[in-house]
Write a structure and sequence with these properties.
Blueprint: H1 8-20, H2 22-31, H3 36-40, H4 43-48, E1 55-56, H5 72-89, H6 98-122, H7 130-135, H8 146-156, H9 168-171, H10 174-196, H11 201-223, E2 230-236, E3 241-248, H12 250-258, E4 267-271, E5 283-286, E6 300-302, H13 305-317, E7 322-326, E8 332-333, E9 338-339, H14 346-350, H15 359-364, E10 372-382, E11 385-392, E12 404-408, H16 409-415, E13 416-422, H17 428-432, E14 439-441
Parallel strand pairs: 4-6, 5-14, 9-12
Antiparallel strand pairs: 1-10, 2-3, 4-13, 5-6, 7-10, 7-13, 8-9, 10-11, 11-12
Length: 453
Amino acid sequence: MATPGVSEETLATFRKNFSSDTKNVLAQNVCRKTDLWEVCLQQEVVQGSKHVYNTKVAEVKPMTNQKSSGRCWIFACLNMMRIPFMKQYSIEDFEFSQTYLFFWDKLERSNYLLDVYIECAKKGEQASGRLLSHLLHNPSEDGGQWDMLVNLIEKYGVIPKNHMHDAQSSENSRRIGCLLNTKHREFCMSLLKMVNSGCSDEEIQKRKKEMLEEIYRLVSVSLGSPPESITWEYYEGKDKVYKKVGPISPLEFYRQHVKPYASVDDKVCIVNDPRPENHYDKLYTVHCLNNMTAGVPVLYINKPASVLKELAAKTLKEGKAVWFGCDVGKYFHGKKGLLDTKLLDFNLVFGFNANGLDKANRLVYGESLMTHAMLLTAVNIEDDKTKTWRVENSWGDDNGDKGYLSMSDDWFSEYVYEVVIDKKFLSEETLALLKQEPVVLPAWDPMGALARL
């Protein structure tokens, strides 16, 4: 009978080859006591990075911190919105409430998913099937996509942070996420049983409303109750002149005092999905990807990476920051605040290339997808070519340049998946693509990934 597993002869060859190369022994000695990325770090890349840019938008304070939550997509949006808002009202220090939108997303997404469970049951989907298995993997997901922000803000508005501060469960969302997941799976089971047993739509909707009230109670207890009206008081300009707005509803506060300078519904999500079957200049959506029943659908226009760069640079030249989604964990050094494909030399330490897949195949084989949303605030442009980008993150001011990151242009090409661009910067031909019937990608497609880190 053959020896199970790797043969002794093969292992002997591996041992001999490893120990005969003194570089392997040196690398082993170092790596046993040192973080692997620190050993692979290319110092010339670190030393060559400079946080100086020739095209830059105004940057404001404070640097935000999402802490242990997946609210990056909300932070990036509100950070983008506050730049023109603060300029308009001549204020030096400001944040919108991220927890306010987080609250409404938890409730609306739960309502949306309860409706999806009912629809799945009516179509004969089983809990063990791929669709419901995917939806129930982490239904309380913190992350989101751009059009989900449009749904929330256009319905509920925004408020200053001092009208709804962070709660422990918004700064560290793991516990509330676990409870929501538990309830979603229980509710999905109940709704499937009701549909399969022939309950009427009226009975199902009555039970669904009871379920949603349980979720409302959980979210309210954990995050606090969002205010129905606010009175915003602030000091304007260098002379610190007292000003007052309100009482006013959050939606009217947005419509009257924020939207004229920082609207969210006049933008389009442009993605780079280079998989051969997903053609450029086509409109895409993802099955069962939304956070609001009957809300704005999540839509993408697919373009080459060069177009995403061109549009982002054009927006920055106009003094506007750019919301974008990327795979932040690749070739990234958090403390130094660097995103660069040349940052880590795995061949030097391990003797192999760790970048054997191109961008399309990284999507196909599960090696990469969008994980994080941040803000582009500056770019270096030389000879009409983009070189390096400045990124406002939402992880506090301890890393990088007081919280800002430096991103190489090659890293943008490889790991940026989407940018959000004002319609005014798009050609008529591109805007016409929004009138297409979107290609529907399956719910588990990597382009349905949510910014969640």
